[in-house]
Amino acid sequence: MRLNRSNLCWLVLALITAGYLLFWALLLGATATYSTPDSWLQVLRSPEIRHATFLSLVTCSLAAGFALLLAVPVGYLMTRLEFRGKSWLDAALDIPIILPPLVVGLCLLIFFQTKIGKVIEMAIPFTYQVSGVVLAQFVVAAAFAIRTMRGTFQHLSARPEDVALTLGCTRFQALWHVALPAARRGMVAAFCIAWARSLGEFGPILVFAGATRMKTEVLPTTVWLELSVGNLEAAVAVSLFMVLLAVLVLVAVRATGEKV
Amino acid sequence: MIQLEQLTWKVSGRTILEGVTVAIPANTYAVLMGSTGCGKTTLLEILCGLRQPTSGRVLLDGVDVTDLEPRERGIGYVPQDLALFPGLRVREQIGFAPKLRGMAPDELNQRVNRLAEQFGIAHLLNRLPDMLSGGEKQRVALARALAAQPKLLLLDEPLSALDESMRAEAVTLLQRVQQEHSLTVLHVTHSSSEAAALGTLHLRMVAGRLEVESKG
What we know:
The structure holds two protein chains of two kinds. By secondary structure, chain A is an all-alpha fold. Chain A is built from 14 helices and no strands. By secondary structure, chain B is of the alpha/beta class. Chain B has a six-stranded mixed β-sheet with strand order 6-7-8-3-9-10, with helices on both faces. The chains are: A mainly alpha, B alpha/beta. The interface between A and B is medium-sized, with 19 and 27 residues.
């Protein structure tokens, strides 16, 4: 192949991309080779880390489930209905994405000190509780799930739903019988994205739910706690486990065919 | 019978339909022609209740249905892209409306099978939309609309995706369906030959107004 200007341009772009990927490969490779597999197994057998792993899996699944329950109706509304002030609402829905994570935690902490918050806590205690971990994960994960569901509904034609309305459906039935079955891949993708976001959530959990071992400790908290006492091997082992989970989620999202 | 009285539709200050007034007698096969973007699809959507007119009235058999929801109008609608339901098999597509109305399973199966036989798609009942050709999809969309037993059928360029040989076959099918089901049909098309073959009432949309060209 002759190296003309067009080919040279592609070559430069490919080198930039390869350089970026190589940087990440080196980062992960360095982390993976820092400690031995034996020490990973030893760390992962520790009761504290097993508890944190179990709690992470449970809370992430709950937060992602709640996020999906919210994302489907909000995503459908924002895609199918035109109304005044929609662009403002659209921007407001992205607030959790742009807010610094610690600020999200602080907002939650302060809200549950207000009168309304205290009334809610009388029914379900959140502050420094496991339910607080789920809530802290949910508030951020929901924003990403909403984005994903909006993208899904935008790519689906509204025409089948229109036809369903003429065939006897109410709007809710058209959503239930036509739009949701068509959006199932997007729903899986939204759940996975919300789950992955929840898994990496640290700041809001630390501020709002605390970092109590065997109680509100999740995997990111473990990494922080182990680092703070100088136990780098444990921090590395847990980090690699989180990388593995993140890769599995990425594969699952790609398998749905949705672009996120 | 369809009656449109002074139907107007404006969007963003632009008038798409202006004072559309027409009466289409029952059991008529009306064809509507007009240039692209002149408001033909908008008119169909107003008729079946998917859009609310800015002003004017829609009457079906003398009843004002302007404020009724699409499901309360008894109108079958086949859009240009046919809009088959993704993920539903042909059997479920055709049985969609009767099932929604709570029809008993035996009766539902009978109706689906009868329509499938009538449209020559009985061998496709277990297929998904992705596994159908353009002509097969068109037949499924028609069968699905007729399963709801409408009195009025709105067709938005239903033959545009078919090649020449299949189009002739589809024209015969539409004539047969209209007669067998005693339907009033409003069929939007760009094809003069299609309009000539099917229409007993010829309408043309010009600059947002509807003109009656001829009665067959």
